[in-house]
Design a protein that fits this description.
4 copies of one chain form a homotetramer.
Chain A (H helix, E strand, L loop, with lengths): L4 E2 L1 H10 L4 H11 L3 E2 L3 H11 L3 H17 L2 H14 L4 H14 L3 H11 L2 H9 L5 H15 L6 H15 L6 E4 L6 H10 L8 H8 L4 E7 L9 E8 L7 H4 L13 E9 L10 H15 L5 E4 L1 E2 L3 H10 L8 H7 L11 H20 L11 H8 L3 E6 L6 H7 L3 E5 L5 H11 L6 H14 L1
Parallel strand pairs in A: 1-2, 6-7
Antiparallel strand pairs in A: 3-4, 4-5, 5-6, 8-10, 9-10
Helix pairs in contact in A: 2-4, 3-4, 5-10, 6-7, 8-10, 17-21
Chain lengths: ~450, ~450, ~450, ~450
């Protein structure tokens, strides 16, 4: 079969013949051969799609455009995304006219509505129409993933991204998400995605996965969306324990002996992973954790404590800056001297060193969480921002909680527990969002105060 | 338990304590007692909901507002809808500012985006947030149903309705709809809705329903939406036959002998019903019929003909006007004379009369379908508009196809068959939508020509 | 299509061509035409089936025999059942040989095994092979239902029935039964069977059914079997209440206000119905009630009391005999005098009469339950035998608990509550089964003692 | 918690208190501690279980016995199995009495029935009652697996095994088996069993499994049983191809390019594995293949050829015997000379050698399949017996079809294709089972004839 050009003839033919059965044809073409599309074809298809009123033709055209995008070269794809920015923006003349009308007649509902319509970038409607194609939602999520890779070099694409976000927020609203438990009876095609997407503590292989899903004291839950049926959008891994853990290694030990879940008092959220880069910025984690807490409470009434065991991704870099900062508010020269051993590999092997560093690091960590801000004035640590923003409380600092290479590198092994207490979650959340107040346990606050006192 | 005022104290309390568990509390209140809300409370809740940034509090507030709406008096509800029109429109000052910016700096992306945001009625965001409450989508569909009842007397509400439509089109887009077969193994809670919603040929009782669903030569399909799980949004009833039927009674006869579906050549869509008045104007029927045609073809390859057996709701009224119109292009005085018997009950009982009327009525019907227009210049018959707009072809006129009281009243018993031919459906649709060309069989066209010739 | 004789030619043809696709052919023949079989054909098919070693041919022959049975005349069917008794019994000669071997060599395992094989009626193997046909189990259950109708007039068939029971006990053992909740979301094809099979308090129509299944304080559960998927074998209807009920009418009142199931303390089993006459004597009720009690306790921990509200089907007849018995141990002449009003319709309308009869009837009822025996020396009341045999306790006598025509006729309105207390159920059951001890509440025992004292 | 003796006190307690809730207790004991049972306890439990009439107590006792068996030592288990043989056989005295009755009164139905009952080993009823425990069926299948390991050294156990087989044939009859497709969306807990149980061409790991299940031109089907829900009893792996394959390696090649299943003409059954050693001798394969053929034909009407690609496990040993046999009917001295190279590893690497051996080996193979018999006079090859017994036809000999180590060892690389042709399957099966006639293609027969001619 000769390679195929996605040319005008094809397009014309498509328009004249595409019934729904055309899907199969179209799919066949794109799968079994090596079709090509001409430069500019995609944008042209987009224009045609926007100009048609008929729904059925619209679906066929949407399919054709998405199929064409799939087989396009990287350059053609980028060109199409740029066309979205440049050719599918708002309609200037219509805006002008609407403004004139308002100038003339005042802000009548009709005039404002016309203004609103005119100011809406035409690509929003285009994206909506593309979404009607079978598989359209998944294709658009992938398209945005690609778009995000170009934004920093092509700032014009930022506006396109805004429109994607606007629509995705609507299509992926909480009401559409379905919580499902993921365990060892879950279909393999979903489980292989858990292996692939786990972002916090990598899953080595199927045996490792099994040891996280199959034991009676382990749980995993994910949010699914009706249009992306085989894809968990986000998932959380949970360990049921008898106390708040202080380190990750014992939780992941494949040889540990499971406990009876009826005996557990504590649910530990030790890993939360988003899976779709194309859904960046559409947040699900907040809803996920709260619903899992509620479901677990129902299933296991003996559970009284819901905590995370979380990484501290920004700590090592921040501490390095403090050590280099003569005016550090948290480290004095003596501290810095002690901490200089951190630059030597293997410092964790010497118990005396480990003991000496501990109080200094914990005090610094308390400061990092309670006082440090990033350039935009926000709480410095991104994971802390997420959990505090959800209404959790900073509960405990876990010195050397993660001594893996990654753990030592990003936080000198520091981990923390955030506690989700349903009675306080709303007020914590409000206080944090509205006033920036950080909920923290007495122990954490004391680590800060002690240190400041000691430094005095 | 004393009746409860949905007052500020309650609201305050709500805001400070509402976790997700609050749902249960809230549900309890609204179900088991007779809570009341104060005048203006709903709009105030709306303002609060829009002003909050926290997602979780937002869900609780959305629940509270919808629960309050549920228990409000009819007057309070209308007042809330009017508040949506008046208090939750676009922000005039922001529009002014955006226009100023454009005047000063030109149409930069940022300026146009700000303009677009400002011109969006604030109720759109409010409705989006209400949709996040559990059961929110269903509650909003009911709210719009109520809204539609007020629009003609309160024209301001038209703008509110536009926003509902804008959002519903997005939430109920084709991609979210799930086709499901409905048969005698379908859960009873869904079947009772089929009984309730059947709009074309009323279902008398469960035995009648059984006779439409259980026989091997009957099918029924509906579209379902993930957020309205027990509600078919639209459904179609299908009879499998050996020829194109000319009347409805034999299809519904409870004593008929079913045929083997493998022997059937024809699928007859004899009833299509939308179920949610609150989704008026969001069209699903087009997609439904086409997908059912495809599914049936796959299941029963022997099926070659897909037709409707449809009512002609506007025909009797139109014919009455023709009879009264001296300049009628379709009826001459002799015709009118013959037709005068139509005013007498029981005219269908006399075979001679029936025979005499037939050619005149069929010729008038051909004219009605092919030439008559409504005030807006559209094809006169609403059912014809639907099927022709879907790409169907007007296939056959069925004289006295429905001699029930309802049938005689709306169309003097006339029914028609529209034919769905997958090979022509796209081109018919395009021709109809873009140029107003009506696809009709030779037989129907001939009925028109013959008559015109005869009249000459 | 000419009517078809199920003759030898057909049979021969069948044997030579029947692959699994033959099923369709066969099904077609038996459904769409009016095939006949010759006298003796069924028994002959049975012989052939037993003589074949091939599994696949066996399935086809089993299908043919069952299909033939389906279309046979009543006389042919009876003749086949009699053939089962006479021609498919044990093999006498083989028994003789086996006995000879034992006489010669003693009871070696091989000899005893040969004896066992020889003594097994050949119809057992025949029934096992019939069971391999698609739909075989259902067909055999129907066959036994028919068989039971003939047993009293054809005592030879008793042996055939024994073999059916032997096999059914194995195929329908508890391990295969699946408990499923039946509610208003259950498929209609199953619900219509609930209407049809309800044996205790007839269900009038779908509205009545709905009022028993849909309210939040109602439950229904049934046992299903993997080979009879659409048929509940037995089901129980449950009302959730705040106290032990004393009458059936309030439970079935369509206008009653449901209670919140979380508020209920008591689960009332007010109707238990077996559905398959062909499974008579294979008992499921015991397991059903106990599993439902366990499931309800898990779902609603607030439930503390599990009782029935049961009819007393043998009471009226027994009381009539006591009234006629001069030596009645429970009624003295004065009692009989009072009770004479029972013969007059409408006695329940006069409050004074009702009051006067009450103590006499309750004392008689206590005697009936605690002392009366049937001819085989068993507890007289069949429903009592069932529940006491299950380990329940006779809890309360409900005077005029069922004033429907049926209730008055069978028990002068008397109902009773049996209590299922999981802590006592095993010991009650053992005591009843092994020693005939009846578990009864103090109140019931007192009704007996009081009366005896009063009579002295 | 101290280790626990499963002693009389426990047993007594069990009997007096075991309600269904006792299950949990019991399960808890056996899982979380290290309970022990006394010698002889199991047999005693068995006696008690048989002596009880109560169903509920029976279930509890059955659970106790199976739980006790689970924790027993290997010696105790064997002792229990031997007790089944010795203490739970038929009742000699009852047999004597029954024989006496027959001698006296002749073979009345009652007498024969009593004889049958007496001759039935009591362990049959014991096993039936054990089957009522939750998980009983699975436990009994494991028990028989263990039993099979002892039979050769303890011939008395053969009788126990016969009873297991008798009951398993009934419980695992075709009617209860459910065919399910196994693919990459199947739950992982089932897939890991596919990996473990694959007996023909070992599955290396999850990637290998994926390459057999996920591609569009691969299928896998298994039979499941309602009481062993997570266990496929048998499964078959299928490749869809465009021709009958001659070697296994290309089918399993992970890098092969899948074909469109709509293009396939041939379904190749390349692996069939039984999974439960405890179900040895209960045959499912026959039904499985035929049902899969039917299902595939329905799904993919373009499939016209259904063949296996099968190993020849007995060929190498048989050929070795022929080479050593001076009177071999199939190898003459020259042949033997050529074949002597087979003893040298790597003979397949030399094309000339490979060519020279081919005609000799194929002729020998034709003889092996068509003429060779085992000691019991059956077709020599066990795989051939299975497929020919199912009605398949020996279609093609595949020289060097499997050059893996295992393939070379068991058959010098020879594989064969058996063809399942639905039109001939019944008659082939009958001819083979009743008369020993082997269905073989002309090509295979010709390989035999040619050689014989050549040898002459």
């Amino acid at each position: 079969m000769p390679s195929l050009t996605f040319d005008r003839a094809f397009l014309t033919n498509l328009l004249s013949t595409l019934t729904d059965r055309g899907r199969d044809l179209l799919r066949g073409l794109t799968q079994s051969a090596a079709p090509r599309i001409a430069d500019g074809e995609l944008a042209e298809l987009g224009q045609t799609l926007l100009s048609r009123r008929g729904e059925a033709t619209g679906v066929a055209l949407a399919q054709a455009l998405l199929a064409g995008y799939e087989v396009a070269t990287p350059e053609q794809r980028l060109a199409f995304l740029e066309a979205l920015a440049e050719m599918f923006g708002p309609e200037s003349e219509a805006i002008e006219r609407a403004i004139e009308t308002i100038r003339a007649d005042g802000m009548t509902p009709a005039a404002v509505s016309a203004l609103h319509d005119a100011a809406e970038p035409r690509r929003q409607e285009l994206i909506r129409r593309l979404n009607l194609a079978p598989g359209g939602t998944a294709a658009l999520v992938r398209m945005r993933e690609e778009l995000l890779g170009h934004v920093s070099e092509h700032p014009l694409l930022r506006a396109v991204d805004n429109d994607f976000v606007h629509l995705f927020v609507s299509w992926f609203n909480r009401g559409f998400l379905v919580l499902q438990r993921i365990d060892w009876t879950t279909p393999a095609n979903i489980l292989e995605k858990i292996i692939r997407y786990e972002a916090v503590h990598a899953i080595q292989n199927w045996d490792d996965l099994r040891s996280r899903l199959a034991p009676p004291d382990r749980r995993c839950y994910g949010f699914f969306h009706p249009r992306l049926v085989d894809e968990p959008l986000i998932f959380v891994e949970v360990a049921l324990t008898k106390e708040i853990p202080a380190a990750i290694a014992p939780l992941l030990d494949p040889d540990r002996v499971p406990i009876d879940p009826q005996q557990a008092t504590t649910a530990v959220f030790y890993s939360i992973s988003n899976t779709q880069r194309g859904l960046n910025g559409i947040s699900f984690g907040n809803f996920l954790i709260k619903q899992v807490v509620e479901d677990l409470k129902r299933e296991l009434p003996n559970l009284t404590t819901f905590v995370t065991l979380s990484p501290v991704p920004g700590f090592a870099a921040w501490l390095a800056r403090q050590r280099a900062d003569e005016a550090s508010p948290v480290l004095d020269p003596a501290d810095k001297d002690v901490l200089s051993v951190l630059d030597q590999p293997g410092w964790t092997d010497d118990p005396a060193t480990v003991d000496k560093i501990k109080p200094i690091m914990l005090a610094a960590a308390a400061f990092y969480f309670l006082e440090a801000k990033d350039k935009r004035g926000r709480v410095a640590d991104p994971v802390a921002r997420f959990h505090l923003g959800n209404g959790a409380r900073l509960e405990k600092l876990d010195y050397l909680g993660d001594t893996s290479g990654k753990g030592l590198k990003q936080s000198y092994g520091l981990m923390v527990n955030y506690c989700y207490d349903l009675d306080d979650i709303e007020s914590n959340h409000e206080a944090f969002v509205e006033k920036g107040i950080i909920a923290a346990s007495t122990a954490v606050r004391k680590a800060l105060r002690t240190r400041v006192a000691g430094a005095a």
